[in-house]
């Protein structure tokens, strides 16, 4: 059975690979993309998304809606230093000529789920502004979707944007708080990525050597990021948080452990902006409604990912 | 020249009088109303607004759009204890049978101002959730409106909801922060109301004695509030913050002093949630963009208000 | 009956006048001074205090103890731009050669009140660090003193350091919070000073013309401050918050209205650091334990103050 | 060479074992103990400390000073539910009849380090109130001590008091912030304890079987805690955070990895009160002054600990 998916993305870096996975897998049908303020300048993100869809040959079928151009409440800064200016490594600045779909991202989400209640899965791989806005427009959003998969937070571990926060939650902590409070979410955090969704140098070699368009695209967009990671994290391994999120939608069996915990987000400015409080021991009296993915089948995920890059077919070994 | 006005309201208490003023004055043309979470239960507010329009005989012409049913981020509680259950004094629970307009409040605002750029004035007499949501949808909102008039905040004075905050700013401090940061606002605060927009017992007598439908309506909705005020503020004077906001749109010359100051809002939970920081001395380096109304022609305002109640014609003495 | 007084001071500007009042009035016996981090560099403050005692001829009798050199928790900056470098107008940098008393300010306070339980009054005219430290050493401090008089806070009015805070509370908001929570305080805030303890140009003329040492000292230390006030507040009137605090100890009948309210302080960094929440309407459930002075006998205060400067005798007209 | 040690402790549970280690090891000479508000009621803690010293036969030589009876600024609650009423498991309420030393804990620390500059090591195994108070009294504290060893914080891992905070930092986050900002600290956090300083059921067996007074004491005080841990953490293993801190003073070579990082503490009330921000990647511009112990020689630590309990001699295998 094909899962119908909406991707909400601040398209740069690994967002593109997640989109490719969704576009190329037979297990998923991309309904639409919504763009949200995040990684790099908004208009670059829109182009990056369109370019990626074009690369996968689905630009005609998957409309791209522009959403919130800034977080709900807080100010923020782009991270061009991570993904390179433009968000695709620093050399690639697509100009596809494809028109954005008419309408506002959060509306598009609301209308789609109203039309197909219980059938759509939201894969959220950027700051959660669009989703929070959709919630204000449609308080019953949670009942109308099949599943909400979020890449975000740093579950009782070091963050990647500040020591206390992961980037998506840091950019719009208010939206993250709203979403975690009001929706049943499957959460894949930065810690999971660090443990199980990084590709080490040796794992990257086959991709570097391959000459498929997807592998070339991957090499291009990761070049800058790998340098940055080398510097910040002391390793040129690549991290694939967004791809992992999409992969668990393609193949739910990837998820091995995912207990439900109470999750809250610190939305205040200061030391802990965007901190994800995950109550693993049930100490607080908050409701344990978030499914926190703690471990996945790492080998299988990497097979899916590599099959996509080397063969254009993430489902190849499924 | 008639000013075209959108009223954003959590209709209860004085919101009704502001709507009546707008509906009955020839200086103002009500384009539409949007309802926002605030004073009392959302659905009551919607009915209260429709009932008020009906009373003024304009229910056919002025569509009522339902907007945000909760604040951007924070939780809040209604203040039934202030306005009586239902928001109209506790005895009156209208059920007009009028349909709400199709569409979402914040969208209605955006579409209206896009259609008539520079021609519409927003009169905001509730929490600012709808306006903040409109800003996320249309970042150029400020350029598209003629003026944004806000009743809110407590300018370096005691608040009415907590000691540090006025109700509208307290309910949705995030929205208030966003609006004060991103729009040029004419602000009428709770302090101004306390100084110049309260009707004392003797001023209320003619209204109590009058038997016009507007005066009767006023008596009904203020009965509970006057008791509450007697208890909390030690006086049964009524306060007309929202009416004053609308009156300054009907007659801009009511405004006597309105310097521009930098205004910020504390959106954090805790002691100062909803606190309005107004930099009267220019100590901070924030931009002085908010026009803070410090004094009005009180006698004239009261004439307008009383003319409306006693003669159904706020313009009578203009 | 003479009241025995401890003055806790960040000696600069009006602190000196308060000390003079205490030293020259027969109604008060200065037991000791403690110096706290505040207005200007700590060592200047110590010298300023000693110089002032010397000027009043009591340097031999009143020991000066050095207290906390920084706030309990927060970082802060001096306000040399207000009081002039050094804190006495910018030209005067005393070097008295007088030794500080052996011991730590907060200890000196604790030991003094333990020796004379119920007999000493604390007049606190600087940030409240020393008092909070004394409280941690002696939890029964409140039972051991006769009265605690604090100059601090901005009661539902504009602050003088930031729009939301008065200087003493801003510098050490944690200490202010602790003191307001744990002691019964008589509070004289910045708003009271603005309303009733400012000397206008015409009131200052006799002082300027007088050639007594006290008047000359006053002229010197206020010269810079008056320029600063002219610039910031648009008036070269002088403000005498600390003198007023001491005057109410000399002559308690100066106080006309002083209801008890619940007072809390925002100790958080940010927009409202040092904000004094004063619950004038009893809305919160906090205990109404702080005696907030709302009005004084202004003429009489000014007589006391002027008598001190012109005749060296604050009690002259009492 | 013997290290001279001051122990600052909220004596309950493992604090007692740390004191025993210090008292029984020839590598350490206990100079004095200071008691600080924390685990259980203050007066119980004082008695617990004296009882422990008596058990080790050093009650005559090691004075116990009473320090701060509450945190610098925040309110807090005891954790009788963790350590049992009284803090020694719930059955044992010592009443030693030993007098506390004259003087205030923070003063005793200041006086001791002033007398022997550079010679004393502070082993801080409670909330850091006393240390922060000592810092306010003696700003040069850091220069006067040999080393400051702190058990506290949860370094990018789940806390034990709330999900975001370890108990000592949670109780007095302001003091923790002050200490981390103003002193060079060797920090042993809760995460290290969880990884390397827990004794599992099988490791506890020999202790349970032994009938030495120390082993009996250990069994008694851990009985309640093990039940509590079983419930909260799903394991009846005991945790020895304080013992580990003291063990690293007895045998510094226990420490295997201890890089220096910038550490800050969130002192705000709310979700992240007491959160320890540890900048492992050097992302912030804070100074990397805290030596964060990341790994120790676990086997050796356990040998020291067991030797103490079974043979009364922690140095037995050194
Ligand atoms: Ca992303
Ligand atoms: Ca309203
Ligand atoms: Ca002062
Ligand atoms: Ca402890």
UniProtKB/TrEMBL annotation, chains A, B, C, D:
Keywords: Hydrolase
Superkingdom of the source species: Archaea
Segments forming domain Inosine/uridine-preferring nucleoside hydrolase: 5-302
Alphabetized InterPro entries for the sequence: Inosine/uridine_hydrolase_dom, IUN_hydrolase, Ribo_hydro-like
GO-annotated molecular function: hydrolase activity, hydrolyzing N-glycosyl compounds
Name used for this protein in its record: Nucleoside hydrolase
